[in-house]
Design brief:
A five-stranded mixed sheet has the order 1-2-3-4-5, covered by helices on one side. With about 170 residues, the protein is of the alpha+beta class. The radius of gyration is 16 Å and the shape is globular. The mean pLDDT is about 85. Helices cover about 40% and strands about 15% of the residues. The chain contains six helices and five strands, in the order H-H-H-E-E-E-H-E-E-H-H.
């Protein structure tokens, strides 16, 4: 897959793994994140964490927004490990994009509040999986309607909760 053909952001990869409906809503400019206290807390954590790192916030083709990068690692800062699988997928996607550009790194997901760092590496299995993620994301984005609602344990903390669930019985 050519880098020019990839029109998927890291956030969209994250949303695919969290909730395909959230991915569709966000991709169709139905945004509630601006009013979300949790999103604001995450932005503040991102801005105040790891100030000494030289290369912070690198944006590549408006697709990849890397929090931290040095000669060995690409780092992502997250406020909680509750979405660890989605966090990992997002960082693996970044590693994949960088590799397509000839840049090889290992990834680290930083959870400063938990004083935890998870190290991840791009494997051959993941290299084969990522194009499937990208195809899924493109299919969801092209769909005329959002995917059906699915009740996840973390829905009540989502910025789209009211949109999806207000008026529904618990």
């Amino acid at each position: 897959m050519e880098l020019d053909e990839i029109k998927v952001t890291g956030l969209q990869v994250h949303y695919l793994k969290v909730c395909p409906r959230k991915l569709w809503l966000h991709s169709h400019q139905i945004n509630f994140e601006e009013e979300s206290d949790r999103v604001l807390q995450g932005k503040i954590l991102h801005e105040t964490s790891y100030k000494r790192k030289e290369m912070k916030e690198i944006v590549i083709d408006d697709l990849v927004k890397i929090d931290i990068m040095d000669k060995k690692y690409v780092g992502e800062v997250k406020s909680s490990s509750k979405m660890a699988e989605a966090d990992k997928a997002q960082l693996l996607y970044y590693l994949y994009i960088l590799e397509q550009m000839g840049i090889k790194r290992t990834g680290k997901i930083h959870y400063p509040k938990e004083r935890r760092v998870d190290e991840i590496a791009l494997t051959d299995d993941v290299r084969q999986e990522i194009p499937k993620w990208l195809a899924q994301i493109q299919a969801i984005k092209r769909s005329e309607r959002p995917p059906k609602k699915v009740k996840y344990k973390y829905c009540s903390k989502c910025s789209y909760y009211s949109f999806c669930w207000v008026g529904e019985e618990e």
